[in-house]
Structures are given as structure tokens and as C-alpha cells.
Amino acid sequence: MDADYDELSGPRMPVPDDWLSGNPLRDLDFVYLDVGTELLQNKYTRLTSVCANSIDDRASWGTYSPEPLRLIVHRHLAFGNSLARLCCAAEVQRCRRSSCCRQRERMSLVAPHCEWTAFRDWVVTAMACQAMFTTAERRRPAYMHLVMAVTLCHRLLADQLVETKELGCNLVDRQGQHSIDLASVSELIYWMLTIQNADGLGSLIDAKWGPQFLPSYLVRESVSRSLETAEVLGLCKNRLWNLVGVMERREMDLPGLLEHARRYPALFKQRGHGNCSPKTCPFNSLDTSRMEQLHKTDDPHECPLVVYPVQLLEASIRRGTGSVWSRFEIMPAVVKPGFRYAAISHVWMDGTGIGIGPQADIGVVNKCLMDFFLRIAERLDCDGIWWDTISLPTDRALRQRCINTMHENYRAAECTILHDSFLLNLSWTDDGSPCVAIVLSSWFTRGWTALELYESRRVKVLFKGPHPNEPLIKDLDDDILAKHPGSSTRAHWIATCIIQRMRRQTASRPENRPIASMRDLLAVLRPRSVCRIDDKMTIAGLLADLPPETGCSECKNLVTAEGEAREHLQEHIKRHTSERILVHLPTISHASLLHGKSTIRESGPFSWAAMAIYDMPVGTSGDLDDANQKSSLSLTIDNLGGATGSWLYRGLSEDDCAEGAITPIRDADATTVSRVAAALQNRQACVLLREGHSSKPWLLAMAVGRGQHVGNGIVEDVIDCRYVGAVKVTWIAESTERTRQPSHYGRSMFRIGCDGNKGVVDVQELLPDIVRGGYRASENPPGGEEGGSWKTKIYTATPLTERLRNELLNEGEGRYEQDPDDYSDCDIPSDEECSSTDSEGRPIPWTSSSGFIY
To answer: C2H2-type domain spans which residues (predicted)?
Structure first.
């Protein structure tokens, strides 16, 4: 064979000595190519009747073996070269079959942008041919070969992130090096994974792509550009960051979500949000009941009022015939099986509520506004209408009963009409922009509309039509949501996933999928705002399908209570409802315990839960999560108020507790601050817990003894702990080699919230092998402020080698414990400001008994 030819990857050229100076790969054969070098093969370009990638004439990667990676790449190669070598070795062919060519053209329009065009062409070709495989072709090894080529691209990226301190953003070419945008390369890899996951191949993905999977330096620039776009468009920062908090990859999905906004700024520009922050929006605190009622006519002075008598409504409710009004007369309709009615979902901020004025009241509406909704109902072939402005009684007890069952009106409706002034001014396009506009709208931010969306089977959205009184009606499922990640832009798919996570059932998917965990509940509830904060707990109970009757005498007294007694009862109901929901939805993510809020109790049952559950952080969930895996990695809540699950743990040395070394998370309340300070005075009882090697912040707890947890008929030994709070640790992030050592962290089952009146104990009595002390080489002084010199001390529980000592002292910069998602120059709020994450971060590979690296 020619010495200048690599059988895996084509032409090979000598590498400059200065690039390989000191490199142990000086004599290793590897690909040396231009950034424009073709990664596709042209072996079957003459074939037009069959897919060139369906031909089984190559060594197939049809198993889970990592052997191709071991043969093709090496850790000393630049990542770009390693990826190029892998792509070439996969022997993906340029295909001329007409169906594959058409699919490739369609996918090329929606695939993420990447300046490395050769890699993008490889990705689009592989995905297009994979999508067009016939049923018979999918049984061939060639199909699984493409699947595994995608999986190995992901595995290569994951391994390189673990093995290198900083992933090189370059590809070595004839001029030495060519910079490539690794953020866009990573997006293409992720795009391939979402497609395979949607096709039922998600089980092949061997590491969660969470918010901390990519280090901040790779995505900082793209996130920064997205924030600039949001600033220019005047997008509400509060809405935006509430969305970010529940997206699978958090801010990493932000550039994709705002893709359409950058392309069509005129469509998405918002006004009045210049003073918004990630935590606040002035519109959230407006008393929307004081908004003037909307007119749908050019001459409001000529528009009369229409009165829907409340007495008739209340009589119908008491008879059990419902609170729906007839479209044909001002009379309550008799709702029977088969009766078609539409429910209105709207925001009072738009003026579609009761309004103000001397005649404003329940059941009193502008005729032009009523006619507008009746015409929509007629177009949808509905004979009745449910609208809270005219469908809620005034009798206090009856009204409370109707509010407790209000969501059932949306569940039973033929369809829900979504009215939002921002969307009504948006011209329809087929490119996914309407879907993105929905998640950025005011309607999507409100608590009650979230409940209405959750309960609705069929949603009809109103957009700008030929005339203000003739809006365009589009079906959410049929017309708006993306059907597949391979046929939609990233913005469209991200927005679709956000919306779909809030659906109980749809017309096309009639099976009931109630909220099954606290993770799902918080993802719906936490980003939403309400005018009256007490409503948020009511909505939480309705989302959780709690029965309205509790049997609690104090809860029943709320209807008649006044003044201070009413405030006391509201606090009781908040605590009682939180406990009921936590028992009813008995799984919760680790991240939800990482808050800085006052807890339901100081110790004992539910002492780890925030007084209001909607103040607890959201554990991210999304495209690549497996439902069974999510359940197994969550904490289990028992009937006694304990939260049990697996945690990584370590102890505290005296130096670890130096002033400012461990501090409550930002914005922690005074109770949490004092609790943390008191706990650190008894460090022997303290234990630091974290879900994964890279998850932040930490949970500080105090050991109280051993116990047993019974779950699914299995009895497990657990360490019982008292909840203290979420803390920030200003130590270094240990070196990669060190974090792989099983002795550095232990893993055990902990139960939090079953401490009762028990006294704390020395944690080493329960966990003799617990590590106390660790490396310390932070650029930050105690307290985390910049400009300090904390790195001169090194503490360890085990001897350090001289090599590792020198590495820590001389190359400590960048190795201190810094949140991977800390974009100091991008104005990104912290986990505590929006939500938290339970991601494992960068995956630490391990080898199974079969030899495959996970």
C-alpha cells in the first residue's frame, strides 16, 4: 500500500514537526486534511435506483462496541481531526437515489448551521438516507451501521470532553490549523441524536446531554449573541429565562429557540419589557381585573353591553347541568354527552376579563367582544361557549367550588380557543415561527392558561386574518407543532417540546397522561405567573389531580375567614397542599432540594421541601430522557415525608469549613443562612451531597443515624439525615484523574426528612470511608469574590504525588470549582434565580462487562 495513503480515511500528508513537538504521536499515522476535504465517499454515485448507504459491503458497526473509536482516533489528535477520521471511516456514501436526494434537500433547510460544510454535508446525507430506508432495508446491517456512526460521534465528543482540560476548537490542515465552531458542530451531533431518539433509537444514547454536558467556553459566544438578539427585540427577560429553566439543555437551547427571532425580527418584537429582569416582569404584578374590557369594533361608543344573568348560571350549576352558555340564546346550555362547546383560554391583560367601569361585573360583556367569540364557536361547529368572564358565579362558596373544578370544563370541551393579542397580530407562516411565538407570548406565561392547556384535548389558536374580526384559526396539533426533529428547524422543535410537556392528552393521542412526578409538575408550574400568589397553589393542586375535599377542618374554614385569621389559614393551606401533592406525586428530582427557601418544617417530615412547592427548582427533562431512567434516578417520597435516593457524598475537614469556603446559595433567605452557619459549627456531623460529579450546587445535610427504607417491596439500608440547605462550595473542581478515583466520593442511599427529634451524630461513624478535605486551588478568596489568592494551600485526605502537586500549583487556573454554566459576561441568571439542574454534567465513561464504554 502507498505510504501516503490511509486505508481508513484517504490521503495522508506529513505533519509539521513544530505541531507535533513533544507529542507522543509523532510517529502515529493519522489524517491530515483541509477543512474542505470531503467526508463522504463516492463509491456508488452511478446508482440511482437504490440507496448507496443501504449496500452491505463494508465492515458494519452494528454492535455497541467502541472498537471503531479505539482504532480510528487517539486522544492526542485535535477533536476536529478525530471527528473527520471517524466520519471517513464510517464510509457514508454520497447517494443519488431520487427519494434520498429530495429528503436531503428538505433536511438541509432545517439542519443547524455549521461553517464546517463538509461535516454538515456528511450529517445531512447520513440522516436523509437513514430516514428513507424502507422497512426491508432497516433490517440490514447497513441501517444499524448509520445508527452507530451517529452514536459514536456523540461518544467521541463525550470522551474528549472528559479527557481534555479544554477541547481544542481547531482542525489541523495544510496551513497548520483551522478554527472550527465546536458549538455548531456539537449542535449537529445533538440534532442527529434527537432524530434517532424520535425514531425509537434513544436507548442507544449512552450519556445524558444535560445543561452541563458542554463546557461554558464552547457555547458562551452563541448564547451571548442570543441575549443580544433578545435585547434588540425587547423580549421579556423574565419570560425568556423562565422558559430556559425548563428546557432540556437550559441556555444551550437558547440560540436554537431564538433562531426565528433573529431571522424575522419584525414578527417577534415586543414592547413594554425594557425594565424586565430574569426574576421580575412588571406585567406579572398588574391587577388584570382592573383592565378595560376589549372592544372588537372600530366605534366602541356605539357598542352596547350584553348581560348574561348570573342567577340563571348559578341555578344551572346547582342543578348539575353545567356553566356553559348557549350560542343561540342568552341561556345556560344543558351539557350532555355529545354536546359540543368551546372553552376560551385568554389573558385578562388583553382586556378579555370583566373589565372596569360602573357596570362591570360577572356576566356583563361588550357585545362586539361576545359576538367575536360566538362567531369563532360557530366556525368550529360548537353550540356553546365556556368563558370565565361569564361562566363563574358570584356566590362565594359556589364560586370556590367552581374554581376547584374549572379545569374540567376545558377537559370536556370539544376544543379550546386560544386568544392572545400578540398572536392575533402575527401573520401566519409555515416555517414554525407561530409555534415559537406561542411560547414567547403572554398567554404562555400565565398560571391559569397553563392549566387550561394541560387539560385541553384540542386547541385552536387565533392568528392575524384578512380582517380583525375574521382571525385565522389554526389547530395546535395539526398545523402548529412540529411532527419530527428531522423535518423542522431547531427553534420549531424546541418550542414544540416545551408545549408538548404541558399536555395531558390530545385529540390524536387520546390516552390520558396525567402528571406523574414533581419534576413534571414543576416544569409546568414554576415558569408561570399569577396575579394572586395563592392561585399558584390552587393550580398546583389541580394539575396534580388532588381531590378538592381534604377532610381538614381548617381548610374548610377559609371561605368564611377574614383578616388575620384568613392569612393564617392561607399559610396552613399552602403547607397542607404542598404535603398532599408531594405524597400524591412521590418522585422528585435531586435538583428540587437545592433551594434556599424556608421549609415546611424545621426538622422531620417534609423538612426538605420549600413552604410553597413552586419555589423548588426544576430538574431538566427533554428530548433524550428515557422515562424509566428518569424514575430510577429520582428521589422517592414516602408517606412519612422522607425523600430517599442515591447521592455522591463527602465529609468536611476543619479547613473545608474556613470562613467563606461554604456559603448558602445566592438569594437564600435568612432562615437558610442561619441554618447553614449553625451546621458548620458541628462539621463532624455534616455531609456534602451531590447527584453527579459535576452537578451544582451542593446539598449540605447532617447525619442522624441509620434507617431502613421500603420501596417496591425492597428493604434498603439508608443514612438518615437532617436537611440544612443548598450551598456553594469555593473549592477547586478536582482534576479529571482524581474525580475518577472511587475513593474521592462515596455513593450511598440517603433519606432526608426522617430525623424527627434525633440528635446528630459523627458521620464517620456511619460512613467510615468518608473523605474529609480536598484539593484547594481556587482563584477566588473566601466568599467567592474575584481577585483573591486561595490556591497556595492544598489539603488532601490521601498523599499527593509530586506530579499532581505541580499540576495543581502551576496549572490551577481553570480547575477551581466554577459553575460550568457561569457566563459572567452574558447576564445569565443563576440556578437559584430561575431553576436548577440535576444533570450529571460531563459523563465519566466506565466500561461494562461487555467492554462497551458508557
So the answer is: 552-572
Alpha-carbon span 322 to 383, nearest angstrom = 14
Q: Is the peptide bond before 697 cis (omega within 30 degrees of 0)?
A: yes
Range from 44-48, 102-106, 185-189, 202-206 carrying the lowest mean pLDDT: 202-206
Instruction: Quote the longest CA-to-CA distance of the chain.
Output: 94
pTM: 0.82
Query: What is the rounded average pLDDT of the residues 36-50?
Result: 88
Q: How far apart are CA 186 and CA 782, in angstroms?
A: 36
State how far Cα 752 lies from the chain centre: 25
Cell output for 482: 412540529
| DSSP symbols for 689-749 | EESSSS--SEEEEEEEEEEEEEETTEEEEEEEEEEEEEEEE-SBPPPHHHHT-TTTSEEEE
Give residue 833's pLDDT: 44
CA torsion sign for 224, 229, 231, 234 is negative
CB atoms closer than 10 angstroms to residue 569: 19
Mean pLDDT value across residues 522-530: 86
Q: How far apart are CA 386 and CA 335, in angstroms?
A: 11
Residues 769-804 pLDDT 10s: 887 764 443 343 333 333 333 332 333 333 333 333
Q: What single string gives the DSSP state of each residue in 111-158? A: SPP-S-HHHHHHHHHHHHHHHH--TTGGGSHHHHHHHHHHHHHHHHHH
Question: How far apart are the C-alpha atoms of 583 and 606, rounded to whole Å?
Answer: 10
Is 691 in contact with 590 (CB distance < 8 Å)? yes
Q: Measured between alpha carbons, how far is residue 551 from residues 101, 557, 576, 606 in Å? A: 65, 11, 11, 20
C-alpha cell at 843: 459523563
Alpha-carbon dihedral angle through residues 706, 707, 711, 716, given to the nearest 10 degrees: 50
| Whether the Cβ atoms of residue 323 and residue 316 lie closer than 8 Å to each other | yes
| DSSP strands (E only) in 468-591 | 470-475, 587-588
**What is the SS3 assignment for 646?**
strand
pLDDT tens per residue across span 721-768 = 999 999 998 864 443 433 444 446 789 999 999 988 889 999 999 998
Tell me the pLDDT band of 203, cut-offs 50, 70 and 90. low
